[in-house]
């Protein structure tokens, strides 16, 4: 049985259109990018009902670091304030399933883990680590989440995951001054993106920053090109390994990607430099150096705002954004997310899952920026700038009309392990974008091994 995922066959153009309009408006409105000083409590006497847990100690494991981790700890602090429990954040390493396996083998599993892939939820259930959500958490989920976001947290029809965090992975951020100096315009199609890149290059600035040291960024590049070019049905088939990576549609997508990755002067530091650049640095180097940054554009999701916040650039004025351009007939909309999964079934763990399924928890982190929630009960006004507000509004308006990150749907061995599988194969392709056939052969070999008998 393959990992649970959204299998809708409706067009994904609705959200793409909403995002295009939203981002065009927000680029004009010039959000100041300031953090909301009120990002703490939604009021300990209001909102979701939680039990008293004085004397209870809980552990939550996640791979989050830096600002993202610090902001999540503020959410946990509010849970502590309301319940009397003490919650410890446990930093995990990728792949988190392997990290959890070592903790469980040592008899010290965390109470709750934030799992970034539906495939990882499926593995946790198969290994009998994950515990089903209780009635209170289910009640919050049904009240606050669309059916699609509930479904990707299910395995064999039973609810295990609360998608606390979402991501819109179909965005390209750009240095507004670099674009202005180049006379470059926001592109709507892949062809226009290449024209824009050339204009930026001619102005003396490298067009793209690529965080190739983190293989997941490369899978996201591929997924956007593939979804737009091959279409939703093919996307679903490849995500389930119902078609092979040697399929002509994959060849077409890789050939398209090579139009950017294969031009060394288009990528900051060339392929070698990109492969040594981790995701956070790929963002910050785009927005430091004034109008002479190391690159003018960086592709990644809405969460890049956390890293932009580490520079002096302001979202909406210095740092602007446009939807990933249409490669085929429609612009792609790829979403991702992180789900809270209970590993130790207790009153405290169930209460924490319930809290994370509530708008109370998500509103705290929304106010702090660099975060997007699939919880439809979170007020749009909680997000700290017009760019983020309109991205959030568009996500909720889309309902179930999106595609979930393909590599996150795959078995972890293929789609979620540093130095292996799809991550490694696309890093090798970035190094040698001329070898399309070789990349396809490696991808198919690794996918077949990971999916095995039913994946």
UniProtKB/TrEMBL annotation:
Belongs to the bacterial solute-binding protein 1 family. SUPFAM superfamilies: Periplasmic binding protein-like II. The keyword Signal applies. The lineage of its organism: Bacteria, Bacillati, Actinomycetota, Actinomycetes, Kitasatosporales. This is Sugar ABC transporter substrate-binding protein. It comes from the Bacteria. Residues 1-27 form the signal peptide. Keywords: Signal, Transport.
């Amino acid at each position: 049985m393959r990992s649970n995922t959204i299998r809708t066959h409706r067009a994904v153009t609705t959200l793409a259109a909403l995002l295009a309009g939203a981002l065009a408006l927000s680029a004009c409105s010039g959000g100041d990018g300031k953090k909301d000083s009120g990002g703490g409590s939604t009021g300990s006497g209001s909102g979701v009902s939680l039990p008293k847990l004085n004397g209870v100690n809980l552990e939550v494991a996640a791979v989050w670091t830096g600002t993202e981790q610090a902001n999540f700890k503020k959410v946990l602090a509010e849970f502590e304030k309301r319940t009397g429990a003490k919650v410890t954040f446990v930093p995990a390493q990728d792949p988190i399933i392997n990290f959890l396996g070592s903790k469980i083998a040592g008899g010290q599993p965390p109470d709750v883990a934030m799992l970034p892939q539906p495939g990882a939820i499926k593995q946790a259930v198969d290994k009998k680590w994950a515990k089903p959500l209780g009635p209170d958490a289910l009640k919050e989920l049904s009240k606050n989440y669309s059916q699609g976001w509930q479904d990707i947290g299910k395995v064999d029809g039973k609810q295990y995951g609360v998608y606390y965090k979402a991501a819109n992975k179909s965005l390209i951020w750009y240095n507004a001054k670099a674009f202005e100096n180049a006379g470059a315009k926001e592109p709507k199609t892949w062809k226009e993106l290449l024209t824009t890149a050339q204009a930026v290059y001619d102005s003396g600035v490298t067009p793209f920053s690529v965080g190739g040291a983190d293989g997941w960024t490369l899978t996201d590049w591929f997924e956007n090109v593939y979804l737009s070019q091959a279409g939703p049905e093919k996307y679903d088939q490849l995500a389930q390994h119902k078609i092979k990576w040697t399929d002509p549609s994959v060849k077409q997508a890789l050939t398209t990607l090579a139009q950017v990755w294969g031009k060394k002067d288009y990528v900051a530091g060339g392929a070698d430099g990109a492969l040594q650049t981790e995701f956070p640095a790929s963002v910050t180097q785009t927005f430091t150096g004034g109008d002479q940054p190391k690159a003018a554009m960086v592709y990644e999701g809405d969460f890049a705002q956390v890293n932009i916040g580490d520079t002096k650039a302001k979202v909406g004025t210095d740092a602007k954004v446009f939807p990933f351009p249409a490669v085929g007939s429609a612009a792609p909309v790829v979403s991702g997310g992180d789900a809270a999964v209970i590993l130790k079934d207790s009153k405290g763990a169930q209460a924490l899952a319930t809290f994370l399924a509530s708008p109370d928890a998500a509103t705290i982190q929304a106010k702090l920026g660099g975060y997007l929630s699939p919880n439809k009960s979170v007020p749009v006004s909680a997000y700290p700038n017009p760019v983020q507000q309109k991205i959030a509004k568009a996500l909720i308006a889309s309902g179930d009309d999106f595609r979930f990150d393909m590599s996150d749907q795959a078995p972890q061995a293929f789609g979620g392990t540093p130095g292996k599988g799809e991550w490694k194969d696309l890093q090798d392709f970035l190094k040698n974008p001329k070898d399309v056939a070789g990349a396809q052969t490696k991808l198919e070999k690794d996918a077949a091994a990971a999916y095995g008998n039913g994946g």
